[in-house]
UniProtKB/TrEMBL annotation:
Official protein name in the record: P2X purinoceptor
Locations listed in the record: Cell membrane; Membrane
Binding site for ATP: 82-84, 197, 301-303, 320
Keywords: ATP-binding, Cell membrane, Disulfide bond, Glycoprotein, Ion channel, Ion transport, Ligand-gated ion channel, Membrane, Nucleotide-binding, Receptor, Transmembrane, Transmembrane helix, Transport
Upper taxonomic lineage: Eukaryota, Metazoa, Chordata, Craniata, Vertebrata
Catalysis performed (reactions): K(+)(in) = K(+)(out); Ca(2+)(in) = Ca(2+)(out); Na(+)(in) = Na(+)(out)
Annotated membrane topology: Multi-pass membrane protein
GO process annotations (BP): calcium ion transmembrane transport; response to ATP
Chief location of this protein within or outside the cell: membrane
Length: 393
């Protein structure tokens, strides 16, 4: 009679049952239990949540945001500008070559509308400006020879001299004399400036979609010589009156011409490339960019000088210019149908519909009167011992 096979230890048997269970779980298909709860109010909540989620994805995600498209932001852009017009001040007539800085025709340029001129400055000694801190004095002892104030106009000589006008005295400096405050003359150039015309030529390119377009109509006649920008009738005639730009930015032209300021011309190219190219059009907006209501830094001005020689000595005319700086800013985005974002957003939409089931399960198991009954129906509870979930050996 054959000897009986020895019984394996309890730990080994448990390990085998665990291995069989894991192997079975790997190959077996599991499906959640479905329970039909006949409760009208809960059913209405469930369908309403599903409807809201569906409307959100259909209307906002797919129609408004167009999330089925592949997108590219920040087009490659070039801007060329050209200003035309003449104006006059109290002393002379000004043309484009004099009042437009810099003259290259880039995306940022300034149109001078008022100047303060200090003529015939030469290298020498003269009283310092009273605007410079610690420049006023009573005697030579108040002025230190060789001292240089970075906000001043030269190196102090150590002498206290009478100011250009009035009874005050300031320290004498060695530099370009007379200083700006001592002999400047103001001239206003803005009388005819509202009628200046500005051509803004803009071309954009979206490299991802190989799409390019410009803001000038492709015509061979002299269309640009006779047109003026209008959002309805002449959208592709980018010639703007300076007064129109300032007005659309919500500013008073006379005030702006005296103090100076920065106006932004924003060109927005939002293009749906699933539609014909004729539907991709520029949209223009205008607004002031500098801090208008900050007294310490309001306005816009800059200085430059014109040099020449008189009797062999170098002389210059210093000009403090106030003007309207134009910043042309181009931005936009383009979109075109793509299968990958469409699949991702559809999967997200279908997954999100399950939020309705989660919400209704929470209401069912938390607030309903028979929540314990529903809980027993929905969940199968097993015992705590290993035999209860490992199955038979």
């Amino acid at each position: 009679m054959a000897a009986a096979e020895p019984k394996p230890p309890a730990g080994v048997a448990a390990a085998r049952r665990l291995a069989r269970g894991c192997w079975s779980a790997f190959w077996d298909y599991e499906t959640p239990k479905v329970i039909v709860v006949k409760n009208r109010r809960l059913g209405v909540v469930y369908r309403l949540v599903q409807l809201l989620i569906l409307l959100y994805f259909v209307w906002y995600v797919f129609i408004v945001q167009k999330s089925y498209q592949d997108r590219e932001t920040g087009p490659e852009s070039s801007v060329i500008t050209k200003v035309k017009g003449i104006t006059s001040s109290e002393h002379k007539v000004w043309d484009v070559e004099e009042y437009v800085k810099p003259p290259e025709g880039g995306s940022v340029f300034s149109i001078i509308t008022r100047i303060e001129v200090t003529p015939s400055q030469t290298l020498g000694t003269c009283p310092e400006s009273v605007r410079v801190s610690n420049a006023t004095c009573n005697s030579d002892e108040d002025c230190v020879a060789g001292e240089l104030d970075m906000l001043g106009n030269g190196v102090r000589t150590g002498r206290c001299v009478p100011y250009y006008h009035g009874a005050s005295k300031t320290c004498e400096v060695s530099g370009w004399c007379p200083v700006e405050d001592g002999a400047s003359v103001s001239q206003f150039l803005g009388k005819m400036a509202p009628n200046f015309t500005i051509l803004i030529k803009n071309s954009i390119h979206y490299p991802k979609f190989q799409f390019s377009k410009g803001n000038i109509e492709n015509r061979k006649d002299s269309y640009l010589k006779h047109c003026m920008f209008d959002e309805v009738s002449h959208l592709y005639c980018p010639i703007f009156r300076l007064g129109f730009i300032v007005e659309r930015a919500g500013e008073n032209f006379t005030e702006l011409a005296h103090t100076g300021g920065v106006i932004g011309v924003i060109i927005n190219w939002d293009c749906d490339l699933d539609l014909p190219a004729s539907n991709c059009n520029p949209k223009y907006s205008f607004r002031r960019l500098d801090p208008k209501h900050t007294p310490a830094s309001s306005g816009y001005n800059f200085r430059f000088a014109k040099y020449y020689k008189i009797n062999g000595s170098t002389t210059r005319t210093l000009i403090k210019a106030y003007g309207i700086r134009i910043d042309v800013i181009v931005h936009g985005q383009a979109g075109k149908f793509s299968l990958i974002p469409t699949i991702i957003n559809l999967a997200t939409a279908l997954t999100s519909i399950g939020v309705g089931s989660f919400l209704c399960d929470w209401i069912l198991l938390t607030f309903m009167n028979k929540n314990k009954v529903y809980s027993h129906k929905k969940f199968d509870k097993a015992g705590s011992g290993p035999e209860a979930w490992l199955g038979p050996a």
